[in-house]
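Weekly structure sync, notes
Attendees: PL (lead), two postdocs, one rotation student
Agenda item 3: pending single-chain targets
PL asked that the sequence for the first pending target be pasted directly into the notes so everyone works from the same version. It is reproduced below exactly as submitted, 194 residues in total.
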Amino acid sequence: MITASITWGLFLLVLLLGYGLVQVPKNIYNQSRTSLMLAHLQFKLSQLYNEKLEVEDSMDTLVDDLTKFCMEIKSDDPLRPCLEQIVRIVPQQYSERIKLTMEDYKNNRIAITNRYDDFEIEKKLIRLHERLKSNIHIHHRVQTYWVQMINEAFFLEDIVNNQSNSEHRFLKQNPYPSSWLREKLFDQHPKLGK
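Predicted structure, written out during the meeting:
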């Protein structure tokens, strides 16, 4: 029994070492092939863009739910401080929408009656707060990856374009300053774009 386990362990060790001996140089070689890395990065960007859209849609849904709670819970309600605490963690581009809706509510243009008792509202607020915190974390992660991968893709694209450059100088192909491009790409997220 012990001999079989030692033999099996040695077999796995040799197999995994062999994989590492082949895969590490292969990864280093593939990293040196800029056009392959650019194509791979563009593929990953398309996947990340889909994830980014899904996260933004889920954030929109959560902000809509939070807006409904803002209109249902009156200012003299004991749950109002808890709701305001939840509203404070919402990212800036979404909190503007909540503020506009709240101004409409204060001007008595919109009125929603409270359909639940306090215990049900408290449970729903807790669930909403948990979902909002996790989605904000995912939103920040996706936005950071997006900015990082876009910058890397532009850099690799410049390398590919400069490989046939006869001047032996690195020229950026983007005629506009990087701040202009970032504003166009990340106009909804000014903190991440700068």
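Discussion points:
- Confidence is low (pLDDT under 50) at residues 190-194.
- The chain has seven helices and no strands.
Action: rotation student to compare against the earlier draft before next sync.
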